[in-house]
Structures are given as structure tokens and as C-alpha cells.
Write the C-alpha cells for this entry.
Amino acid sequence: TCTAQLLYELEDPQRYLQPDVVADFSEVRFTDEGPDRVRVEGAGGAERPSQLKVTLGYRDGYIGEGQISYAGPGARARGELALEILKHRLAKIGFPIIEQRAELIGVNAMHGPLLGSAMEPYEVRVRLAVRTATRAQAERIGQEVEALYLNGPAGGGGVTQSVREVIAAASALIPREAVVTAVQILELQ
């Protein structure tokens, strides 16, 4: 577990950037010293880096999601037909789809087509999630699923729709001089 903790999110063990040092963990050794005691040796370092690593948050589109349930005899076949209809409707939707996921919850939501299913489920939930560039495009995804009430397999129910903005993160290096350090103490009443 010590090795796992040391290497967690560590891209380059010889050059781990920190504000005050560039750490080198490539020669680290662990020695068991008894219950709950481990000796750690071999770490090194170099002078502080000329650049600092920052994490940037940025807007990266929207995810539109729609779900609908099918129950009773033939639930799986109706769910699969609903997914096929949605696939054809998405092909004609008229705006770029950045990423998408379509699944039958209760059949293949966790393992996809790898596992298959020997049992015929009594109920399934169709889920379509699509990442798009705009909120209006994302809203359209839930509307397409809701349209299955009238233009899809019989017996669908329990439609839900949601839209959420995607805030992504990326790391970058910036010149150390670009960072101004300041401390502000606020007193709360």
C-alpha cells in the first residue's frame, strides 16, 4: 500500500513537480520496521522548478440525458428497439455529438455487450446520454427520448430528462513569475 500511495497520480517518478522542489522518487525503498511502521529511503530532489503546475477548470459542453422504462413480456426487445430508434434519430439530429452512451439499465449498463444476459428481464430502463456543445442541443436529447411515448415501442413509461453543464479540468505549466502570492485574513462575526 505504501507503493500505491507514493505512485498515486504520479506521472513521472523522477520529476514530481512541487512548488519548492522537483522530487525524485525513482530510487525510493520501503522497509517494514514493525507494526504500523515503515522506513522510507532513497528520495531525492532538485532545485525548485521555474514553472508551476496549475489545474484549470473550463466549460466543456453539456450532457443531455433521457431515460424511459419498459416492463412486462418483451421488455428487453422493446428497450433494444427504443435504442435503435434513438440511434437513427441521433443520426438525423443536425448538430455534432461530442460523445454518447446508450444502454439498457438492467441488462448491459455496467459491462456493455461483453457480458450478455441469459435471463429475460421483466423490466429495463433505456438510458441515452449525449455530450453536446450547447444547452439547447443537450435539451433535445431528453426530448428525443420523451418522443418514444408516441413514436416508439408500446408501453414505455417513467420518462426523465436532465441537462448538466460539463466543467472539465486540465493541467498546465505556467512561469513561476506569473503567480502572485497573497494572504488575506478575514474576521467573521
